């Protein structure tokens, strides 16, 4: 018969419990489905319903494109979590943070001198910084590669993306380029208690956040920027006006509802759920790979978290795998042969001995990934044992 639920592509049967033999594990996409069980538990309180006549117009009552109630809620959320300073700052909404990344580049490049602003990021970096800046390249800005290649240059006029924690490797990052010649865009998509300890509130000129990684509602396409400088804020507003004329009112309504649920009990519920899920996954993965000399993962250290008031174990959104052996120098191909699809290192501006594996997907995907990695490490031990017992080996 027809399955009663939508099965993950690796499972079949009426209750999706039968494993499809030889199925390929998708650890490529950063789809944050690990939070779905939390929203199932809170299905009723997080639901919205909209009558046909509601919010048909372009603007809110005050003539703006931004729900003031939602803006207030976002400020309250940051104050509760303690991850960003919003007092005295402006806020702009975007269709996901994706739209805001270019709005920010546009706004910061407007001051540029005669030559285009150089947009840079430090490798390994989130690939959209390059592909998007290339797409929109103009007389005002141009993607100019890795931050590190400009460290000792006397060039002027940089726009540096700083991603903290970083996608793909989960490290808390700082700006490399200092001084008047460089402006930073802080992409704080993962600066939430489920992915990192929060050492202190970020207090930067331009910070970007996204609902996608906060609550997992990537499909709603909602992000926001927190901006110190009024002129930069106005240029970003102008960008949004001309690009899409603001963010869908349905999305703003849904976001408001979701954030209200997040804020119940001062955010403890969702963030504990998220943290526990991610901690479990990182522990499993670290344990499996600790037995391997063929594959390693990034080193992350426990840190004091001001939100939870305790020292927290690492809980990155991605495993950043390195293939250590010469014969595995195309690490993506090695893992693909073992039916694990990750994202190759070159996509993030580094060599092909690295692969990113997503840890934020659904439980089925994670369990299968775990199983496939166990098999790989088991094989490695078998090969080593056989070599030991081979005469002359
Ligand atoms: N920045 C980083 C570092 C990301 O990982 C992502 C999503 N993978 C985004 C921005 C974009 O997310 P969205 O457009 O869904 O907000």
UniProtKB/TrEMBL annotation:
<keyword id="KW-1133">Transmembrane helix</keyword>
<keyword id="KW-0663">Pyridoxal phosphate</keyword>
<dbReference type="GO" id="GO:0006520">
    <property type="term" value="P:amino acid metabolic process"/>
</dbReference>
<dbReference type="GO" id="GO:0008483">
    <property type="term" value="F:transaminase activity"/>
</dbReference>
<keyword id="KW-0808">Transferase</keyword>
<comment type="similarity">
    <text>Belongs to the alliinase family.</text>
</comment>
<protein>
    <submittedName>
        <fullName>Tryptophan aminotransferase-related protein 4-like</fullName>
    </submittedName>
</protein>
<dbReference type="GO" id="GO:0004523">
    <property type="term" value="F:RNA-DNA hybrid ribonuclease activity"/>
</dbReference>
<dbReference type="GO" id="GO:0016846">
    <property type="term" value="F:carbon-sulfur lyase activity"/>
</dbReference>
<keyword id="KW-0472">Membrane</keyword>
<feature type="domain" description="Alliinase C-terminal">
    <location>
        <begin position="25"/>
        <end position="376"/>
    </location>
</feature>
<dbReference type="GO" id="GO:0003676">
    <property type="term" value="F:nucleic acid binding"/>
</dbReference>
<keyword id="KW-0812">Transmembrane</keyword>
<keyword id="KW-0032">Aminotransferase</keyword>
